[in-house]
């Protein structure tokens, strides 16, 4: 079926969506806060709406493919899509994560406790474990793409780069480096453009590092070529200040050079939960 018909079967009429202020800017337009009237009887629900600037056809295609992927996902730690709305331009309507990007939250809340950091990691890992089970690779997991609903509830967002993994080859082969978040990418992504859940595991390790580093930028100001050389020579991001050795040990497992040596999200979640329970008792 045509992707457009597929997605628009989940459509909303323009009069069901009321746009309010700006939440952030996306690649093809703004993300705005809004209210969505799901039925004529019920109260409207608060939403986030990805809008398109000047009906850019490339942007339209991106939004539709993002929507068709999101539509297949249903998990508490993944931002849910509510529908697509074709008004003057195409809009992707999602549930609202009131507190916004985790990266900004980390930058503001410098006194965050270890159990709280672990709590968020467990939740992100749980969402990623779900994606892994659905053969979806996210390809852009980073603290900027995790949103907070409350201080203690994280959701993975931004499925603009996400893809279903091809069953026969078990990885997604990308066409080439576009606007790639290189600092979050595993070596096989950079060398061979191959993406699977184990490359998301690498990005998860970098996300853990961001969580333990108050949302700092990984690899300082190193250039992409320097980072590749740095990794190839066996170096890794340093242990964040005051980071528990066992938490750093998990990051290092995520950054094993061969993806076969990295743990699955399933196992990562068990290790993180154990640490979380321990720090909660302290
Ligand atoms: P793009 O992939 O085009 O960069 P994003 O999906 O990352 O767009 O969204 C851009 C910004 O919009 C985010 O950084 C965030 O601030 C805001 N945003 C996006 N989705 C939501 C949401 N569901 N709830 C709250 N804010 C959101």
From TrEMBL:
Where on this chain does ATP bind? 23-31, 50
Which segments constitute the Protein kinase domain? 17-280
Positions of transmembrane segments: none
Which sites are catalytic? 140 (proton acceptor)
Tell me the part of the parent protein that is shown. Answer: 368 to 649 of 651
Name the lineage.
Eukaryota, Metazoa, Spiralia, Lophotrochozoa, Mollusca
Q: What is this protein called?
A: non-specific protein-tyrosine kinase
Q: Which organism is it from?
A: Biomphalaria glabrata (Bloodfluke planorb)
